[in-house]
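Lecture notes, unit on protein representations.

Consider one protein chain, 112 amino acids long.
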Amino acid sequence: MSIVKINVLTVPEEQRETLEKRFAARAGAVEGSDGFEWFELLRPVEGTDTYLVYTRWRSEEDFQRWLAGRGRAAHGGGGAQDGAQDDRPKPAATDATLWSFEVVQQTGPKQA
């Protein structure tokens, strides 16, 4: 079965619009990756400043290949080297944690 990666992002209220615009600008960046199954950006609605970035992958190996390739640039890797100035914009999130899960059961709506 699939694996799920949930990136837990702490985003101050004044940075929410910035975060959402950056994700919208990257639309399509992951969809063509081998083993990719699903993506959702979840906005908090009350009582928290935590966004969840949900992705589902066919396998851990598929996720790791994406992370080592296109995902590296998307997650801040491959920036300035040898002390050079990095001109990327400041992150919108102030903290990030990656949760990993295996899908052990799943269901969808009943078909009529």
